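Forwarding these from the shared drive since the link keeps breaking.
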Amino acid sequence: MELRRRTLRHVDQAEYDHFLKYGEQAYGLTPQEIKGYDHELGEERAFDSVEHSYPEDYYFDIVEADTIVGRVLLLKMGHYFQLDFMVFDPYTRRGLATQAVAEALTYSGVLDRHEVRARVLEQSPHASFAKRILEANDFTSIENYYVKGRRRRYSLQRMG
């Protein structure tokens, strides 16, 4: 397994097929959003989303034998990073996501200064797998999301 960083958010036919199958349940995408992906894919069936790519974000392809088998995204959301990951159906249950998440966190270095959060939708058909992947990477379940690198907040009080 190899992790390859992209400078732009990339969507291709494999990811679109994944969204068609799981988008609403696993990712909370609306039918209109999924249809928008289809439109953006165009005849090439792939696109780099310039308007939705930011220099502080990390976009990784999970690659095995020169085939993209999934993705890991670390998206800056103010004071924390949001972790999203997916492995396409033919490549699941082989530990690729667990390894890719670990490598993405190490490569990016985001935990040096930020916390990382991941949300697992209970209705997702992948919920139990996603939770195990996060727990294997030392994320902790807090309320309705998983977190790693949680920062303590301190306040200073002046003494009289």
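-- next protein --
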Amino acid sequence: MFVLSVAGVLVAFALALSLALGTWRSYQAGRALEARLQELRAAPRPSAARQTSDTLPLPEISERFDINRRILDALSAAGLAPQQIRFKFENVDDAGFVRQTAVFTLKAPWGEVAKALAALQGADRSLYIAKLHLEREQPGDPMVTAELQVAAALVAPTSEGGAAP
């Protein structure tokens, strides 16, 4: 009987010790959570102006129009002007830049198209011919139709001010 009462006391002591350790762990976890909560309260809050994954980081608008102007000036210097031109922007995440592309078609003799290509490549080091497709209606026809994509690789801005919606 004495052995049973000693065993009962040991079990009660073990339960009390387990309860005390559980309470201590809960207290420590509560302190850690409170400290983390204080850190989060002190941290700057994200604002709506920050760039999100569905926005395209674009250079300043003046820089975008300057690139367009250089493309059009180079074509004008070569004596050609496209009747229609489209501009598009693509984010190249792996490389860390935004590609601005001008897409247009020229119809002229091959010599004039070649001058336009040289003028475009000489207009600015950041401009390059991304795609060129040449076509003639008839063999020996002096006129060619050139479908061009002229692109510029622009470093993505670090500020949120240049992000497009």
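The longest strand covers residues 97-109. The first helix runs from residue 2 to 42.

- D.
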